[in-house]
Design brief:
Helix content is 54%, strand content 11%. The protein contains 17 helices and 13 strands. The protein has 414 residues and is α+β, with helices and mostly antiparallel strands. Helix 3 crosses helix 4 (39-52). The strands form four sheets. Strands 1, 2, 3, 4 and 6 form a five-stranded antiparallel beta sheet that branches. A four-stranded mixed beta sheet has the order 5-10-9-7, with helices on one face. It has a two-stranded antiparallel sheet with strand order 8-11.
């Protein structure tokens, strides 16, 4: 940035700080470094790219899209060092076979396939060294990137959200905690054969290594080419699970990354993976969603708007300044959901309408509003599930599912 600034000043320009950061060469450098950093920097880049890509400057979106699709694997010597520290120098003797090449590499760890002497197959998630220690600095650095690129107004106070992001990421880096959450989810869903949760292998699980039963299945995105009824069923099961997390479990796995799901076409079962982002849903948050759903089912648009402000989904300032715009957005959503028959996630005709209307809200940076932190984590899961439904072009009776959920009626997809 210093070199680029000096060059532009010498040419008689007065560049903005964001312009210096977002040159093509610097964009490539930032993406490369974030990918190598792994940990919180990579995870936050992936999250922002997935959730907010349509609203970011093109240069920043390019950086984060690159980050989302890259994760560097540990060199074999580094992997061996981690496992020696966690399991002892003779760790290989615990296995009949341990595949050194990971099946998957993500932001916080990578996953290996291993076979025990008795023939059982395990999936072993190994955390990258230094991830936990870097969380605070990584979160602060990504926040600085967003500030420098002028994505966020200086008046927006993100301190509570950043503090909670650091705490959440620390939880995700604790594999003992994740193992317990995985075990608890298995208990909650043990009588529902439509969902498969891997069994924890506690003898090999440590704070930085998570050992679990290997469960087969195809990537959920592979359903794009599946028959319509399979896509509909998988998406309905995902939506139903979100509703049960909200209103029945009081606990939600808040990371909707597509890689966290597998599909078993033979049984029609959904495999659930990665429970690091599991967190309690406060009763007040669940009550907010219940009230919002009830107002939506009644097509009471004024009530929808009022509840959205009361519960913090929308800022009062934005509604006061842009009441007509907010009402048109609510009407567009209500009209779409109110059509007879299943909701067609593949019909995205309403999205450009909402995006065009929302541009006025996004343009008025003085009214930007940070919702309640707990609402943000829940809404991330809700939005991510909707994105997956759109990717699969599924058709689902979400009105029926929502009605049953807030009435405490048993699921419709069994």
């Amino acid at each position: 940035m210093a070199a680029e600034g000096a060059r532009r000043l010498a040419a008689g320009e007065r560049p903005r700080l964001g312009d210096l950061l977002l040159t093509p060469a610097n964009a490539k450098r930032v993406a490369d470094r974030l990918s190598h950093l792994r940990g919180a920097a990579l995870k936050l880049g992936q999250m922002i790219s997935m959730d907010a890509g349509d609203f970011l400057p093109p240069e920043l979106a390019t950086i984060l899209a690159t980050v989302r699709n890259q994760a560097y694997r540990m060199p074999p010597q580094q992997l061996d060092g981690v496992l020696k520290r966690e399991w002892g120098a003779n760790w290989r003797q615990r296995f009949k076979r341990f595949d050194a090449t990971p099946m998957a590499a993500a932001s916080i760890g990578q996953v290996h396939r291993a076979e025990l002497p008795d023939g059982r197959i395990l999936a072993i998630k190994v955390q990258y060294p230094g991830v936990r220690a870097s969380i605070n600095a990584d979160v602060d650095n990504v926040a600085t990137l967003l500030r420098l690129s002028n994505v966020l107004p200086a008046t927006l106070d993100l301190s509570a959200l950043l503090d909670e992001a650091k705490r959440q990421l620390a939880d995700e880096a604790d594999y003992l905690r994740e193992g317990e959450q995985m075990r608890a989810y298995g208990e909650r869903l043990r009588d529902d054969a439509r969902y498969v949760v891997p069994t924890l292998h506690p003898e090999l699980t440590t704070p930085e290594v998570l050992a679990m039963e290997f469960v087969g299945g195809q990537p959920i995105e592979a359903l794009v080419d599946a028959p319509q009824d399979e896509r509909d069923l998988a998406t309905a099961m995902l939506i139903e699970l979100v509703l049960r997390e909200l209103f029945e479990f009081g606990v939600m796995q808040t990371d909707p990354n597509f890689a966290n799901y597998r599909w078993q076409p033979e049984s029609g079962a959904l495999v659930l993976l990665d429970f690091g982002a599991t967190r309690d849903v406060p009763p007040r948050t669940a009550a907010s969603y219940r009230a919002l759903i009830a107002a939506g089912l009644a097509h009471d648009r004024d009530r929808i708007r009022d509840i959205a402000v009361e519960t913090g989904f929308l800022g009062a300032g934005a509604v006061a300044a842009h009441r007509a715009t907010v009402d048109r957005i609510i009407a567009a959503v209500d009209d779409t959901l109110g059509r007879p028959g299943p909701f067609d996630f593949g019909d995205r005709a309403f999205v450009p309408v909402i995006r065009d209307e929302a541009s006025a809200l996004l343009g008025d940076r003085a009214t930007w509003h940070v919702p309640n932190v707990e609402t943000l984590f829940v809404q991330r899961k809700v939005s991510g599930t909707a994105l997956l439904g759109a990717r699969l072009k599924a058709r689902v009776d979400i009105v029926g599912l929502a009605s049953a959920a807030i009435a405490d009626v048993r699921p419709l997809t069994q």
